[in-house]
Design goal:
The protein is built from five helices and two strands; from the N terminus they run E-E-H-H-H-H-H. It has 111 residues and is mostly helical. It has a two-stranded antiparallel ribbon.
């Protein structure tokens, strides 16, 4: 802490003020969305003509939602959070009794 004109000033890390910048899309994200609209347009020819425009709009909207910054996990995009969840191990840990733990330790010490 330092004193400037009788007032104490605390140094604040720059990471605290990053939230305002993180909630915005970057230029790279914009190009990704535009390219996804073009890919959606090309793939829309696989669908009937009545729903082609819907396919293009959904492609762009889906990409926008995927590259948008996640509100709960700082520093990650929505697609990164989704991939983390999909790769997560599906192990459910069971609670052990003290007796089971003591018994297992005794068996380990016997070996």
């Amino acid at each position: 802490m330092s004193e400037v004109q009788g007032r104490k000033v605390l140094r604040v890390p720059t990471e605290i003020d990053v939230d305002n910048k993180w909630e915005k899309l970057t230029v790279k994200d914009g190009f990704t969305i535009i390219i996804s609209i073009a890919v959606g347009f090309v793939l829309s020819f696989l669908f009937p003509s009545m729903i082609r425009i819907v396919v293009v709009i959904l492609f762009g909207a889906g990409t926008w939602l995927a590259v948008y910054p996640n509100g709960e996990v700082h520093g990650k995009k929505n697609y990164q959070v989704m991939l983390t969840i999909l790769r997560k191990k599906r192990v459910v840990w069971q609670k052990e009794d003290r007796d089971e733990i003591a018994e297992r330790r005794e068996q380990e010490h016997e070996i």
